[in-house]
Amino acid sequence: MVSRLHIPHNCTINLKPTALKQIQKMSDNLVIVVTGTNRGIGKGITTVLAQQNSKRPLTIYATSRTGTDTGIDTNSPNEVRYSTLDITDRSSIQSFFQQVLKEHSAIDILINNAAVSNDYRENPEYAAQTVWTNYGGTRDMCEAFLSQPNIRPGARIVNVTSGYNALSTYGPELQTQFRGATTITDIDALAKRYLEDMSSGLDAQQSAGWGPGARSYKVSKALNSILTVVLARQHPDVLVNCCCPGWVNSDMGRQGKGTPPKTLEEGGRTAVRLAIGDLGPGGDEDGGLWKESDKLSGRFYENKNIIVPGWGTSKLWLEL
Ligand SMILES: NC(=O)c1ccc[n+]([C@@H]2O[C@H](COP(=O)([O-])OP(=O)(O)OC[C@H]3O[C@@H](n4cnc5c(N)ncnc54)[C@H](OP(=O)(O)O)[C@@H]3O)[C@@H](O)[C@H]2O)c1
Hints:
This protein is α/β, with parallel strands linked by helices. The chain has a single domain (about 30-320), classed as NAD(P)-binding Rossmann-like Domain (Rossmann fold, 3-Layer(aba) Sandwich), CATH 3.40.50. Helices cover about 40% and strands about 15% of the residues. The protein is built from 9 helices and 10 strands. It has helices at about 15-25, 40-50, 90-105, 125-145, 170-180, 185-200, 200-205, 215-235, 265-275, and strands spanning about 5, 10-15, 30-35, 60-65, 80-85, 110, 155-160, 240-245, 300, 315. The protein has an 8-stranded mixed beta sheet with strand order 5-4-3-6-7-8-9-10, with helices on both faces. It has a two-stranded antiparallel ribbon with strand order 1-2. It is globular. The structure holds NADP nicotinamide-adenine-dinucleotide phosphate. NADP nicotinamide-adenine-dinucleotide phosphate binds next to helix 2 and helix 4. Belongs to the short-chain dehydrogenases/reductases (SDR) family. This is NAD(P)-binding protein.
């Protein structure tokens, strides 16, 4: 079969499928992958991205375990493609990357949003699920992204973490271990150590320096944050940042007491800023989308408090 490609000056040329594929791969679209988009903040992030009047058209892969088409309104020429992806399943990650890299030379931006929170039913099994989804799944997605053969300088990773990630809530020895992590193996060791300590009971967990009560969600987000710092140091050509979306009216947000004040789109703003916006230190009233700006990496962005629907300001997580 031959496809038709329209070019300026009313010319039409006929192309073989292989040539057409080659041209499509070289297109100037910015290719973005978002995880956990069938509901919640992932849906909000995808909506904000899809509605951009972009300098470069956005091809957004909205991924979820079910691949659900949520019918997000899209500003042409942006495009949303729905796809299945379970971040806890390495074969799912591998086949997803293979599928996308058949269609594009590289993925430019990865937004790791998918996560679980089991704090209301904490036990060793749920703690392991939380840690290996929120930290392990994010780690595996980052590794797949960073090992793309044609990754471009300036590629970006955004890890959606939480204001519950503060390092100061841990005992001094653990803080030193977090601060001293320089490799993924070091971070894996922290994750395993937490799960071992908590499996001996809440007292053992607390005396080991992890803090009282259900901690797996908080620990998973601290692990995500140190992952962000370590990857930013290891990959100076890639911009790796993390953010807190604030308190958002999603299924997870409603686990807290009261009504979360932020909409899904407001919750998606800081992640969108870190994906296609200003990476300077200050707050930006509109996220500085598409602005040429500073290029900070390894930072944590959040708003003044969890109810403010802003675009975030930069912090050094290691100092929090
Ligand atoms: N809501 C808040 O107030 C708040 C505050 C701070 C941080 N956050 C962070 O914001 C992000 C989004 O949270 P949310 O509030 O939107 O949560 P949510 O409403 O519970 O949605 C979580 C999303 O993650 C997906 N997911 C879970 N496990 C997955 C897996 N193994 N593979 C792929 N997708 C998976 C879920 O898909 P399924 O439908 O398949 O389960 C769902 O789409 C999370 O990283 C969360 O920690 C949220």
